[in-house]
From TrEMBL:
PANTHER family: 64 KDA MITOCHONDRIAL NADH DEHYDROGENASE (EUROFUNG) (PTHR42913:SF3), APOPTOSIS-INDUCING FACTOR 1 (PTHR42913). One of its GO terms (biological process) is aerobic electron transport chain. Gene3D superfamilies: 3.50.50.100. Belongs to the NADH dehydrogenase family. Keywords: FAD, Flavoprotein, Oxidoreductase. It holds the Pfam family Pyr_redox_2. It comes from the Bacteria. GO terms for molecular function: NAD(P)H dehydrogenase (quinone) activity. Residues 3-285 form the FAD/NAD(P)-binding domain. The keyword ATP-binding does not apply. Its cofactor is FAD. This is NADH dehydrogenase-like protein YutJ.
Length: 353
């Protein structure tokens, strides 16, 4: 049997399994899914779990069952590319003939002292649970600061406002406006929503250090009861430790087939791969589908035919009744994008579940 190991059961990993099993899977292939948890967490909705507007159980999707699929649960500690081994914490190493690295991302703290120790994360199910506990234990009129005014920071602020109307919420962003990757009209709409709902935004903030109860903007002390970090991401440490070429963001450089050039039996997808898209669930899933087609073609002894990956757009929510997004070059704002996002979530559950 040839062992095909998939590291990570997120959007990319599950799309990979579906792409491989939906077509004819050679009978001598054993798929092995490795994940720290026995279910996929819907990471695009972690902000709602942190705020308390969605439950832990609501954000789980069970992994699929298949006769040629084995599941291994545990923490990956390192990957030995030369000897084709995946090392596990408190478990035996896993040998592989083919490997897909789809381990996702973790917070990037940009070397800011105290940022990792004194801020709360929404990057993993476990850390998001802890963030929920911290935010919802704050007494009325407490102060919450969210560092980073991108999509995650905006959605977190809006959801916490819906969950805790009694709290003082501020977004601290280094740019001139929130959602700097979106058109200015979208930023203006979101800023107005924040003003209408008493969420403060502060621009041109340069966080110099973080201490317990205090965020420093240069020498200015900003006092807080809890701080949520949404100020940047990077590939997980296992990928950071790989001795292979990477781009300036730390993502692994891959060839046209998403392989590591010196290790063609290893594929990298999603947030860990240097692809021409911002990290997202949609990009990971689309890339994984293409990689599955590539692998099937190679197994048939054919030259893979590549299609251009086209993403459908980005949607964000402002609580349960408003939203925003970018569909191609068209900005959308208001009730419709919120309904669209709810529909995408429903389809995602149905597709993967």
């Amino acid at each position: 049997m040839r062992k095909f190991v998939i590291l990570g059961g997120g959007y990319g990993g599950l799309a990979m399994i579906q792409g491989l099993t939906n077509s004819h899977l050679p009978p001598d292939i054993e798929l092995v899914l490795v994940d720290r948890m026995p279910f996929q967490g819907i990471k695009t909705e972690y902000y709602a779990l942190a705020a308390g507007t969605a439950s832990d159980f609501d954000l789980r999707i069970q992994f699929p069952n298949h006769g040629q699929l084995t599941k291994r649960y545990g923490e990956v500690t390192s990957i030995d590319l030369e000897n084709k081994l995946v090392h596990m914490d408190q478990d035996e190493p896993i040998e592989y003939d083919y490997l897909v690295i789809a381990l996702g991302c973790t917070d990037r703290y940009h070397g800011i002292p105290g940022a990792e120790q004194y801020t709360n994360s929404i990057q993993t199910f476990s850390s998001t649970r802890q963030t929920y506990q911290r935010l919802n234990d704050i007494k009325p009129y407490g102060r919450i600061h969210i560092i980073g005014g991108g999509l995650s920071g905006v959605e977190t602020a809006a959801e916490v406002r819906e969950s805790r109307p009694d709290l003082n919420i501020t977004i601290l962003d280094r740019g001139s406006r929130v959602l700097s990757a979106f058109p200015s009209t979208v930023s203006a709409y979101v800023e107005q929503w924040f003003r209408d709902h008493d969420v403060l935004t502060r621009s041109h903030i340069s966080v110099s250090r973080v201490e317990e109860g205090t965020v420093y903007n240069g020498d200015e002390a900003i006092y807080t009861d809890a701080t949520v970090w949404t100020g940047g991401i990077q590939p997980v440490k296992v990928v950071q430790d790989l001795n292979v070429p990477k781009d300036p963001g730390g993502r692994v450089v891959i060839n046209e087939y998403s392989q590591i050039p010196d290790y063609p039996e290893v594929y990298v997808i999603g947030d860990c791969a240097s692809i021409p898209f911002a990290p997202s669930a949609q990009a990971a899933g689309a890339q994984a589908e293409q990689v599955a087609e590539v692998i099937h073609a190679l197994w048939r002894g054919e030259t893979p035919k590549l299609h251009k990956i086209r993403l459908k757009g980005t949607l964000g929510s402002l609580g349960s009744k408003a939203g925003f997004g970018l569909m191609g070059k068209t900005s959308v704002k208001g009730r419709v994008p919120r309904l669209l996002k709810s529909g995408v979530l429903w389809l995602s559950r149905r597709h993967f579940g």
